[in-house]
Amino acid sequence: MRRVAGLWRRLFGRGERDSLLPLYRSIVAAARRPVWYRSGGVPDTIDGRFDMVAAILSLVLLRLEREGAPGREPAARLTELFVEDMDGQLRERGVGDVVVGKHVGKMMGALGGRLGAFREAFAVDGDLDAAIVRNVYRGVAPGPGESEVLRDGLTALNATLGATPADEILAGVWQN
Description:
By secondary structure, the protein is mostly helical. Helices cover 75% and strands 0% of the residues.
């Protein structure tokens, strides 16, 4: 039976995707850091936690993008893990089968928007503060000093990812 399960995983790529679980868990752990919510003013709500996971996942995906072709498949597999996690979260909250796909589609659109926003924000002359307000605070101006916490934290994380070899990132071994 194990041989069949292993073959099934290889045929459908689950084994490769599962190899990225440590990375996905690192992303979620980084998104759950209390500083984002306590000092950064991110609402400690389902939406706020989604926004932080999406922001940090975006930075990791952008880092993998800089690897070129070798980073494409891991980025796709990592995105699949995100979709699987969000699907499970929705189902745990009682969202029915009929509308789960619609919600996941909206989440994927939100992730895509964040990818574009953070790609531009970290480019030369990019406006990271505006990207944070729009994509993490959902357009609501944060309190004094809160945006700086996110800006400094995301900037440090982006620098850490940039200085970390891709194989270590893929193994989930990056620290900020």
